[in-house]
Amino acid sequence: MRQMLTETRRLVYSFVLAILIVGMAVGGGPPAFAGQVATQDTPPIPSGLKTIWLSKSSEIQGKEFDLTVLWLLPCSGPDSDTTGLTFLGASSSPPTPAPSNSLPPGANLISDGRGIAITVTERHKCSLVAHVVVAGDAPPGTALLRLLDSSGKPAGMAAFDVKSAQEGPLPPGLDHPAVDVMWKVLPKGSVEDNFGHRVATLFYCVEVLIGNNSGFELQIAGIGFRLRSSNGPPIPSDGFQSVKGSMLWGQLLTPRKFFTGSFTALDTVITGGIPFIRNKQHLAVWASFGAFAGGPLDNALSVLWPDQTVGELDRLSEQSLRDSLIVPNNTQVRTLTFISKQSLEANFKRLSKEEKDDPVLAKQKLGGLVMVGDEIQHVNRIHLTTAGTPSATSVKPDTVTADGKPVPLTIAGVHLDNATVSGPPGFAISDTKASADGTSVALSLAVAASVPPDSYRLTVATSGGSTPVTLKVVAAPAPLVTFSPTSLTFTAVVVKSTSQSQKVTLQNTGNADLTGISVTIAGDNKADFSQTPSCGATLTAGKSCDISVTFTPTAAGARKGTLTVTDNAAGSPQSVGLTGTGGAAGP
Q1: φ and ψ at 193, to 5 degrees?
Q2: ∠354-358-364 over CA atoms, to 5°?
Q3: Residue 115 and residue 153: Cα distance in Å, rounded?
Q4: Range of weakest confidence among 253-257, 344-348, 467-471, 521-525
Q5: What mean pLDDT, rounded, does the chain reach?
Q6: Is the confidence at residue 88, as pLDDT, over 70?
Q7: Residue 73 in contact with residue 99, Cβ under 8 Å?
Q8: Contact 108/120 with Cβ under 8 angstroms?
């Protein structure tokens, strides 16, 4: 039997090969495959050259890509099995070579000079891989790609189409072309109303508004999210088919499906069981009930409780992001994308159920939106990451001293990526550095001594906006001198006699040490007064000391002096007034 099947297979192969040979003879050349589409502009392929298979038959001006070239005629070699290869842009699957011959040694691929640059990167037994760059000014039309052997002699040829990518106009006043994105997380109730309970339970629905003023059509390849609490790669959104599958599965579990299905099943069971009912009266009752359950009752439920599946599917199909969304130049597109809540569980685990359903908090947790797109004329893809609206929640420490000395600060919040920090006059800010996850900003702050104590605002700014944070400034610790009493008076004292001593209490009422204390007597009659301090060179905050003063007049009449204290407190030197009267000696 196996031998018979083998012979039959060989007969079929021979018959197919004969048809191919006859077709080539009659048609004047090999059959057209992907990458060789006959058009009026296609240059003729000279006879005697072998046909090559291209993995891509056309491209737009200004693009670059990798191209695989394969023999169409039989080939043998270690890479002759093309099973599993995927050729994007090809109109048919690559043929499977059969053992016969291979590519010429040192094979090379060139273009006919129509703005197409080709560099061969890999050579195999039956194929080669080349990197192709289509110039932005390459003439649109069909070009020939030539396969050369090591001596430069043509060995194969295929047609390749260059498509035009015309630049569109830019809006008036737009100096720099741009792609703008705004997005928000829809409330769970809105998602449930439009797409059903299961979709609202399993997914966050994100509405994205994309404005394209780049001058070219923009092809959206994908949307994802860079989580603030993760340093890993962006998490891509879920595809349309995944969300649709979850929606359809959810429809099987709804109460409506249970009730309507129950009545339909009941009608089926009753109808099937009628032949077994012998009692005619019972038979009529059951028949009527079955007809009622499967007819009027089922119809009434459909009116009172309509099936939302079709409408939900239509809305999902019309509004959700699909593969290869094209945003024309000078237009904006609103689309919806979904991301599974389960894939974010590790980042949301500390939140309550109510917090997880809060769209504002969910947007903060999702972080920055990442959109990967393709400007039709450009070689490289656009990679656009949106910055969320920054929010500063705290600053530590929250109080600084106006002493001109730099102090390290940390501002905490969300969406603080690449933030800058500014403050009012007298605030010197340096060494600003935002954390990788955008949850904090570290900086160094020096507040000048001239800044009065008060509450001040620092402004934290990112590309997504700005946010204030309040900081309290206090005066630098300083000593403060207080005298009690503030002056001394000595009544009449006989000339050259010494009075009883009087005390002046010096108190440091400030919040820093009083240092460099020096006590002297000054004034016109300083020789008439003397002092004996109990204070050392330093007086700590809150402490006091006494200074004893005596009066020894050298002449009769009013005498004046000043007790002077020099130190590191504001207003130094401080003074206490001294007055006394010299009296005449008795008889």
Answers
A1: -65, -35
A2: 130
A3: 22
A4: 253-257
A5: 75
A6: no
A7: no
A8: yes
